[in-house]
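Moderator note: this is an archived Q&A kept for reference. The question asked for a predicted structure of one protein chain; the sequence and the answer are reproduced below.
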Amino acid sequence: QVQLVESGGGLVQPGGSLRLSCAASGSIFSRYAMDWYRQAPGKQRGLVATITSGGNTNYADSVKGRFTISRDNAKNTVYLQMNSLKPEDTAVYYCHTTTTRNYWGQGTQVTVSS
């Protein structure tokens, strides 16, 4: 069993920054890729960023150059640093991983508004 707990969401003005964290339970964390997804009201959940067990990263085109995903295997934690935030980044952000099944966190709300 894997439990994922996100934190760090909130209200920020356009152009601002936030850092999301996702703490994972279990000793297998370092073996698996970790992802951040987001879901805006009325839209489907979509992939934002991925980091592999080896540290390779991939981003959605809409966040390239603004968001950075990273991981600390010693702390079983994955991060999403979000800079130059835009109103269209407003969504619930979810942490995700796949081992023998999919695991999702409960989500954290990010609202970008003046």
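Archived answer notes: The first strand starts at residue 4 and ends at 7.
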